[in-house]
Amino acid sequence: MDQTGALDALLHEERVFRPLPQMVIEANLNPHELEQAQEQANRDFLSYWEDAAHELDWFKKWDQVLDDSNAPHYRWFPGARCNIVYNALDRHIETANKNKLALIWEGEPGDQRKYTYYELYREVNRFANALRSLGVAKGDRVVLYMPLLPETTIAMLAVAKIGAVHSMIYGGFSAKVLRERINDAKAKLVVTADGFYRNGRVVNLKQIVDEALLGACAECVETCVVVHRANVDAEMHEPRDLWYEDLVRRERPSSPTEVMDADDPLFLLYSSGTTGKPKGIVHSHAGYMVGINRTLNWVFDLKPTDIFWCTADTGWITGHSYVIYGPLVAGTTTVMYEGHPLYPQADRLWDVVARYGVTILYTSPTLIRMLMRFGTQYPRQKDLSTLRLLGSVGEPINPEAWVWLHKHIGGAKCPIMDTWWQTETGMFMISPLPISPLKPGSVNKALPGVEADVVDREGNPVPAGKGGFLVIKKPWPAMMSGIDNDPERYENTYWKKIPGMYFAGDVARKDEDGYIWIQGRADDVLNIAGHRIGTAEVESALVAHRFVNEAAVIGIPDTIKGEVAKAFVILTDGWEAEYDTSEDLVSALKNHVRRELGPVAVLKSLEFRTTLPKTRSGKIMRRILKAEELGEDVGDTSTLEDLD
Ligand code: ATP
Ligand code: MG
Fold it and tell me: Hey, which bits of 326-465 come out as E strands?
């Protein structure tokens, strides 16, 4: 960045949506309480997080809230003993939650399974016993290569219950990725399924596992447990492969919960790989459970009657923190859907919401934009009146998509919680609360107990309205405990770029009201004739045009301007009726961007595409577009979405 470290702020979004009075009256956290929480967190953030920790059950309380003697290798709640699964299941069995629905699962073909807390507890115990009988012990690594099944939840919790460490690999990754990650983790056991349903087809998962295990390291994987799901002809290799159902049938439904030290690892999970090779992030029991419990309860304002649906895959951090662990620790009912959002047609999401009476829907901008293509015909046919809160995560949500979601899905009454966070942060960091005035496209402000800022390269705050690097200035409980086996990469990636602060890798700006706007990835910043521009604002301006459904912008070297911007655009149907040629449309789009953002954001060229390269978690991989454009090596593409 330049001397001031500033990025140009281009987007002028002035709409403000205030919460309805009823929402403010009913919110778990009213404005006065929020002010008190902020005040406490500012004065003494450790006491703030200590209070949050008291909401959970511990085998032994901590000696200290935070040990920062070896910063940036922070240790939260040292001396404490606990297990997140005790909080997600065991403790609920002693309360009125015992017979409450913990999990509602729906398969793509339409089959359903529901588990009360007590039923889920018993299933987890059975599988925990099975794991122990297979020789899996505290500290061992278990790879879960699973689609979205009830057994995925059960396996995760069972592994954690016995003190082992899970590494969940998204069920769409190739044998090569799976093998690498099995080897990296030195996993002893793999849990998978024979197959699963996706977009009307059956994916043969077991075959991929077989291929992966062929070349896996010798001392790894002794056992592969296979869940029956899709009746594919799975080849079972004796004595390595065992059917899940055969294993659990003979196990007792009670099982001791391992007592863990606060910073014993809970799971290993790879980041999405949007900006480069995925990083193996490690989270541990104590801080993680404190962080996700507090943030979920506050941001999504959980009530005893809520039906919470986060549409993320369990292979991502969002699935870990807010499909499985968060909702269960908080004692709510979580919904899980196996299949494709457009199967059998583009109303599946709305159908699931209507049938189960979903009250909170947490999803991603990429999915919203995909569904917007179909207009409002589908949501209009369903009863979405049970919804009271909406949420977005994963990428900047452009104001157009925000307003569409608010109006057509939320009936203009549901606030949208645009939550900014990362695999590394484990929990929501910057987000509105249901009582906050909302600005479409802004992630609002840091949550109490989190100190976020926008700074230049030296760490000085940049003035309001200017862009800079997004940083976190104090440790937070759900922070990663590190990168697997690589303390140096942990220090260099996150703590050395701007000394003394956590470098998030995103660029952002704060407006006059202190609202934070994510402008894109630090790696993707454009530099056009001395102007530094984040990609998100240009993309957002493009998507605001009614014939643009998705857009990705990159910078390409230019001898005069240093760099020029190129856009890749997915069009919506119907533009031919308005423009004679595609050249006419191109110049209309260029003019549109200039009008929206000013002359700085001039687009040199524009290319139409039918798809954009995305990670499996739905994020646009601009680095691939750029490498292709420049004829360079595209680097690690292991997490690229399969487009067939
Ligand atoms: P990698 O770190 O491997 O390149 P990744 O950053 O995409 O992959 P994740 O941890 O899944 O991996 O994603 C976190 C990133 O997602 C954030 O750094 C940010 O860029 C983006 N993000 C998440 N939520 C939001 C949001 N609400 N608004 C804008 N961007 C968001
Ligand atoms: Mg990242």
Answer: 333-337, 360-363, 389-392, 416-418, 452-455
